[in-house]
């Protein structure tokens, strides 16, 4: 997107002057300024609120425990036992 230079800005201001007239243009500029100021205040308040609500962690997050071969084989044996059980037969839980 190209930048707006002085020539483009002058054309935009002239079109606004023709469309709105010399009496209404200062009022529109004033209301636009008030709107931008209020928007800036509200976004700054939101940023401040978010930075206060989200504290930075003092301790780095714990790493998950490594998966061992014994844990993987135990899970595989459990999965085989579950799939080998007949559909009508219920085994008691230990």
Automatic annotation (TrEMBL):
Domain of life of the organism encoding this protein: Bacteria
Keywords for the protein's UniProt record, in alphabetical order: Cell membrane, Membrane, Protein transport, Translocation, Transmembrane, Transmembrane helix, Transport
Pfam family, one: TatA_B_E
InterPro entries on file: TatA/B/E, TatA/E
UniProt KW Transmembrane keyword: yes
Tagged with keyword Cytoplasm: no
NCBIfam families: PRK14861.1, tatAE
Oligomeric form and interacting partners: Forms a complex with TatC.
Family: Belongs to the TatA/E family.
Function summary: Part of the twin-arginine translocation (Tat) system that transports large folded proteins containing a characteristic twin-arginine motif in their signal peptide across membranes. TatA could form the protein-conducting channel of the Tat system.
Name of protein: Sec-independent protein translocase protein TatA
């Amino acid at each position: 997107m190209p930048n707006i230079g002085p020539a483009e800005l002058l054309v935009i201001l002239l079109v606004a002057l023709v469309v709105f007239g010399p009496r209404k243009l200062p009022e529109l500029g004033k209301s636009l300024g008030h709107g931008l100021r209020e928007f800036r205040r509200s976004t700054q308040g939101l940023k401040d609120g978010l930075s206060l609500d989200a504290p930075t962690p003092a301790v780095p997050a714990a790493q998950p425990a490594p998966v061992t071969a014994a844990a993987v084989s135990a899970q595989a044996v459990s999965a085989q036992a579950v799939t080998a059980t007949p559909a009508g037969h219920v085994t008691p839980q230990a």
